[in-house]
Amino acid sequence: MQNDLCPQCGSEHIYQDGALWICPECALEWSVTATAPVSEEDEVVRDANGTILSDGDSVTVIKDLKVKGSSSVIKGGTKIKGIRLVDASDGHNLSCKIPGVGSMNLKSEFVRKA
């Protein structure tokens, strides 16, 4: 049985949504089975196939990508070495150097682990 109080702010106005408990006052979400709250740091970055990515991995672009503000295109099949995971609010969660293009951020949904 749940404690009936938010573990972060102590609010009694919590509710269950599927497998998570949610506090509307501090926006904390935690698992029913876990004792620790679910945090954004625990989220993993996955590629287009669902494989977990980590810093230093090599990835391959799965489709042609237009570079915003430029006429260049990153061709599908381009291999990128040494990615870095970044926390970006716009969804571009990979930082990398692309051969022939330079440094830029990509969305993990357009790559697969090499």
Automatic annotation (TrEMBL):
Domain of life, source organism: Bacteria
Protein YjdM N-terminal domain mapped to chain residues: 6-31
Stretch forming the signal peptide: none
Residue ranges of domain Protein YjdM C-terminal in the record: 45-114
Pfam families: YjdM, Zn_Ribbon_YjdM
Family: Belongs to the YjdM family.
NCBIfam families: phnA
PANTHER family given in the database record: PROTEIN YJDM (PTHR30305:SF3), PROTEIN YJDM-RELATED (PTHR30305)
Protein name: Zinc ribbon domain-containing protein YjdM
Species name: Asaia lannensis NBRC 102526
